[in-house]
Amino acid sequence: MRSAFAKWLFIVYLLGSGTLYSAGILLLFPFIGRTGRYWLASQWCRALLAVMRWLPGITCSVDGLEHLPEEPSIILCRHESTWETLAFMAVFPRRISFVFKEDLLRIPFFGWVLRGLDMVSLNRGSARQAHQAVTQECARRLEKGDFVVIFPEGTRVPHGAPLRLTSGGVRLACATGAPVVPVVHNAGKVWPAKGWPDGRGNIRVVIGPAFSSDDMSQQELNRAVHDWMKAALLAL
């Protein structure tokens, strides 16, 4: 009974605080730049992680921060739930830019703030045109010093599902010369791919070693990233 009450209280907090905070950020948009907007949004993410520990009882730990390169990089991460899209701005010490589907920009308040954060939206039209556009946009974010986060499976998957990576992230790394940093986590154990948190637990995020796109072919890089992520997922 208590867990169900805590779950719904958290949902109310998430939606309510998200709307209010988004409205506040939107009012400040004309007066602050790209860095200020990101800082404000990341503060909400940090507050949300604190509330998660108290209400649904979800904590998180991060291993491998020392693996993050000094230079801007491409993070290839498994997408298991809503958690990582809310938490990564608080978890990662560097500025990140998600690659996300363009439909999210149409969500009131949340989508408007997302547009102002200057991340990378993906129009799922022609595959070739989409890849060219995303490559150009990601290259611009990398030039600005961002870490670009891509979910290479293309959609949310349950924890424990077989790993199936598309080649888009690796192709992007080869096109831009940026290192690839693989990341896995077990958020799907406590926050399912579809739905809301369903229990207490600790979410582990594991950041792997950076792979240089200069030292391998596209196929070799894809295989190295796949093998590391598969082994790391089995250990979670």
TrEMBL record:
GO terms for molecular function: 1-acylglycerol-3-phosphate O-acyltransferase activity. The chain crosses the membrane at residues 6-29. Keywords: Acyltransferase, Membrane, Transferase, Transmembrane, Transmembrane helix. Pfam families: Acyltransferase. SUPFAM superfamilies: Glycerol-3-phosphate (1)-acyltransferase. Residues 73-188 form the Phospholipid/glycerol acyltransferase domain. Pathway: Lipid metabolism. InterPro entries: Plipid/glycerol_acylTrfase (IPR002123). GO terms for biological process: phosphatidic acid biosynthetic process. This is Phospholipid/glycerol acyltransferase domain-containing protein. It comes from Paraburkholderia ultramafica.
